[in-house]
Amino acid sequence: MTEPRKQIHLAAHFPGVNNTTVWSDPAAGSHIEFSSFVHLAQTAERAKFDFFFLAEGLRLREQGGKIYDLDVVGRPDTFTVLAALAAVTEHLGLAGTINSTFNEPYEVARQFASLDHLSGGRAAWNVVTSWDAFTGQNFRRGAFLREDQRYTRAESFLSAARGLFDSWRGDEIVADKDGGTFLDDHRAGAFTHRDEHFDITGQFNVPRSPQGRPVILQAGDSDTGREFAAASADAIFSRHSTLEAGKAFYTDVKNRLPRYGRTPDQLLVLPAATFVLGDTDADAHERADVVRRQQVSGQTALRFLEQLWNRDLSAYDPDGPLPGIDPHVGENTISRGRASDRAHRDPIATARQWRELAEAKQLSIRELVIEVSGRQTFIGSAATIAETINDLVQQDASDGFILVPHVTPTGLDEFADTVVPLLQERGVFRTEYTGPTLRDHLGLAVPHPHTTTGGSR
Fold it and tell me: Which phi and psi (to 5°) does residue 217 adopt?
């Protein structure tokens, strides 16, 4: 008997300010006007996507002491945008990235519980940590946590928030002697959480939501991040989108689940993915080359290289060779608020690898940056991309993808109109929503109060 085909999960990422965005495209619009958020969200809902995802930036990035040029549009508040989108969508999940380092459990739990009610059970929380003092300067503590402390606080934060979500259990509705019911004010919402990070006790004031509690997403790729996801998340993002790397990541995180009493279907693996469509595969590859050169201007290439070299490279020609000098090792002072100095643990070794690559392929600075920062995950005709996505999911390299268009807000339209119908024809993607909540879309059960994880159906 043939095994049933896995159903593909798709989500839409509203592009933040990053080096995937093509600002020069005539179709490029605002990243802050509400109409842009509405267009992308409603396109995703029309295509029957699982959810719409917002990243978060708590401070504008800087490079060389100036605001990084792709960040000048700013970052609207996540909860405000998602709450507004709840009013103009009906089924689409609404996922937001909210920091566990510079917030408090009661405040965040109350905001997500409220969003879950407003949306009819469609909220999701991407739990992240913050790693730099630069961001911390915007907050009262004005500092940051060491890497070994960030996840312990995140685990404590999430545990406290779960206690708040679950503090309205149902058994606080008490029957009286006349057959009626009343709310036991001493039991509803009561919570206590004490550990090295939090000492809180009180009563939560938002009743349990339609899906029990928001879906929990996690994006860490480190060993600690993967373990955190295996213990606590309903879905984990991934940057591993090729077959070999995707299967290795998929197998690794799924194999961690049994130690927490969980099964493989209780944690979805969703890599982020970009795409370039064309009438034919050859046409798509031509378009992809144009997009990459639009994404990486000469100025952008120098800025990218500066993040590794930790030096001012503005005097270099982006169409010339790489710098002969080595990166400056130590505190990253050239770029602030970026993950670049975490991504390259050994900048000298990385620079050596890049020089070898540039020499072997005769690449300029700009050409090298295009090569090493390649973003297009899927390139081809609609039929080719549909087949590739399905193959990766059926071979357990992922459970689906979070799609990041390079043009806002219309960049998802073509995918929705051409690729999604082909996946539906294959019987691997829904033609209609089958339930009202995000947990329904993702195949996750409503969690029991006081269970550690989200459960599955």
Answer: -110, 155
222 belongs to an annotated ligand binding site = yes
Q: Which residues of 218-241 are buried (b: 16+ CB within 10 A; e: fewer)?
A: bbbbeebbbbbbbbbbbbbbbebb
> Do residue 211 and residue 90 come from a single domain?
yes
pLDDT attached to residue 31: 86
The whole-number pLDDT of residue 61 equals 77
Residues 363 and 221 reside in one and the same domain: no
254-292 pLDDT, tens digit per residue, is 999 999 999 999 999 999 999 999 999 999 999 999 999
Domain membership flag for residue 180: yes
The yes-or-no verdict on residue 325 having pLDDT over 70 is: yes
Domain boundary, last residue among 351, 372, 393? 372
φ, ψ (nearest 5 deg) of residue 20: -95, -20
- 364 in a known ligand binding site: no
- Which CATH number characterizes residue 155's domain? 3.20.20.30
Tell me the two tokens of residue 178: 């006349």
Which residue is associated with the tokens 């060779």?
Answer: 321
Strand-pair partners of 190:
203
CB atoms within 10 A of CB 198: 16
421 part of a folded domain: yes
| Cα dihedral 446, 449, 455, 457 in deg (nearest 10) | -40
What is the predicted pLDDT for the residue at 60?
A: 77
Q: Are residues 70 and 84 in the same domain?
A: yes
Residue 106 known to bind ligand:
no
pLDDT value at position 1? 47
The answer to whether residues 219 and 301 belong to one domain is no
* Residue 70 pLDDT class (50, 70, 90 cuts): low
Cα–Cα distances in Å, from 383 out to 7, 270, 281, 355?
18, 21, 9, 37
| Alpha helices (H) along 275-399 | 281-295, 298-309, 340-343, 347-361, 365-372, 382-394
Query: Domain range for residue 33?
Result: 9-280+375-442
Question: Do residues 305 and 255 share a domain?
Answer: no
Q: pLDDT exceeding 70 applies to what percent of the chain?
A: 86
Q: Is the peptide bond before 258 cis (omega within 30 degrees of 0)?
A: no
Q: Are residues 246 and 172 in the same domain?
A: yes
SS (H, E, C) 225-260: HHHHHHHHCCEEEECCCCHHHHHHHHHHHHHCHHHH
Residue 301 counted as domain residue: yes
Give me the number of domains the chain comprises.
2
What is the rounded CA–CA span in Å between residue 50 and residue 378?
19
301 and 246 within one domain: no
- Mean pLDDT: which of 169-178, 325-334, 373-382 is highest? 373-382
pLDDT at 174 over 60: no
Q: Which of 346, 372, 398 is the last residue of a domain?
A: 372
Question: Quick one: 79 and 205 in the same domain?
Answer: yes
